[in-house]
């Protein structure tokens, strides 16, 4: 029967073996040195060496986690639906958060996604309009590919409007109801933007978000000092008066969105990165039990070498040998 291992022999195990060898050699040399003045060799300790090598090997094997065959285990899956709403307006190319606002947010979102393996996560991008870039999915690899491909050039240039992505997220959440007899899944939305909003009144969509029981977490990306917006072809974006446009983080709107939907506001600036707090906040949004399924897992047999090794260790302690006789 094939044996598999939970862990491989690594540096920690190598250090343990080396330490055992060095300490035991030191013990042998010390005993022989003490026995020499009595005209003895200290050979009586030799019979314990195989015993100690044997139980040390057993303890090492149990640490590596030997597994033989597989067992069937019931796994109860829980989760929530999370929509990531990412601003792709031209202002997200500003370099006040290095290397740019979008690139920094993209890297942090990729790390965030890897922390929620039991949850369905979707991606919506927006500027003047909003589009579903990736529907709700458990496939983290596919979602990370979409995140890594995000660029401001994916959307036509235009003034940022925060209402369309929220409305689109609500429509998609309403289109995926819970299965019959199952409780509704917990819902959360993460909106990542610099906060600049040139749209109309957000109050109607905020009321819909609150009624739907959606927790809205907002992430402000940028700095209060702001930065000019580079253009792909060179130079900088100019305003209506022909001057270089300066974009700044506008946290007021993002704070209001979070406060009115029982969410929280976080910042990603040149000096502050609160994505760790965002991960903790999302973890506290309790997912609902969805199904119980059976999975095959390796049958770890570490207990047997561990128990035998401990028994031999106890024998070593109880059975004493007088090595040096005066």
Keywords, separated by commas or semicolons:
326 residues; alpha/beta; two-stranded antiparallel sheet; 37% helix; 23% strand; elongated
SSE topology sketch:
Blueprint: E1 3-5, H1 11-35, H2 48-64, E2 66-87, H3 101-113, E3 120-126, E4 130-137, H4 140-148, H5 163-174, E5 186-193, H6 203-211, E6 215-221, E7 227-228, E8 246-247, H7 251-259, E9 265-268, H8 275-283, E10 288-300, H9 303-318
Parallel strand pairs: 2-3, 2-5, 5-6, 6-9
Antiparallel strand pairs: 1-2, 2-10, 3-4, 7-8
Helix pairs in contact: 2-9, 3-4, 5-6
Write up what this structure looks like.
The chain is an alpha/beta fold and 326 residues long. The chain has nine helices and ten strands. The protein has helices spanning 11-35, 48-64, 101-113, 140-148, 163-174, 203-211, 251-259, 275-283, 303-318, and strands spanning 3-5, 66-87, 120-126, 130-137, 186-193, 215-221, 227-228, 246-247, 265-268, 288-300. The strands form two sheets. Strands 1, 2, 3, 4, 5, 6, 9 and 10 form an eight-stranded mixed beta sheet that branches. The chain has a two-stranded antiparallel ribbon with strand order 7-8. Helix 2 packs antiparallel against helix 9, helix 3 (101-113) runs antiparallel to helix 4 (140-148) and helix 5 runs parallel beside helix 6. The longest helix has 25 residues, at 11-35. It is elongated and about 100 Å long. The two termini are 54 Å apart. The model has no long low-confidence stretch (mean pLDDT 84).
């Amino acid at each position: 029967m094939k044996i598999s291992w939970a862990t491989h022999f690594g540096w920690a195990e190598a250090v343990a073996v080396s330490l055992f060898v060095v300490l035991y050699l030191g013990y042998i040399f010390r005993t022989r040195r003490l026995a020499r003045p009595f005209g003895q060799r200290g050979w009586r300790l030799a019979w314990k060496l195989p015993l100690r090598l044997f139980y040390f090997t057993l303890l090492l094997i149990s640490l590596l986690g030997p597994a033989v065959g597989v067992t069937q285990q019931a796994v109860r899956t829980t989760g929530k639906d999370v929509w990531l709403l990412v601003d792709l307006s031209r202002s997200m190319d500003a370099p006040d958060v290095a290397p740019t606002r979008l690139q920094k947010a993209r890297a942090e979102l990729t790390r965030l996604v890897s922390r929620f393996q039991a949850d369905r996560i979707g991606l919506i991008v927006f500027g003047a309009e909003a589009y579903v870039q990736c529907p709700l999915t458990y496939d983290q690899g596919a979602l990370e590919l979409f995140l890594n491909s995000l660029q401001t050039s994916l959307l036509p240039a235009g003034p940022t409007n925060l209402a369309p992505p929220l409305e689109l997220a609500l429509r998609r959440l309403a289109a995926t109801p819970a299965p019959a007899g199952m409780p509704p899944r917990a819902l959360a939305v993460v909106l990542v933007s610099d906060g600049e909003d040139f749209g109309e009144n957000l109050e109607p969509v905020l009321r819909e978000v609150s009624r739907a029981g959606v927790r809205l977490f907002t992430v402000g990306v940028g700095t209060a000092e702001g930065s000019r917006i580079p253009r792909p072809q060179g130079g900088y974006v100019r305003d209506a008066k022909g001057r270089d446009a300066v974009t700044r983080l506008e946290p007021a709107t993002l704070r209001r969105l979070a406060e009115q939907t029982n969410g929280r506001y976080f910042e990603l600036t040149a000096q502050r990165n609160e994505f760790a707090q965002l991960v903790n906040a999302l973890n506290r949004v309790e997912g609902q039990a969805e199904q119980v399924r059976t999975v095959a897992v390796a049958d770890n047999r570490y207990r047997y070498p561990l128990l035998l090794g401990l028994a031999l260790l106890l024998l070593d302690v109880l059975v004493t040998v007088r090595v040096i006789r005066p």
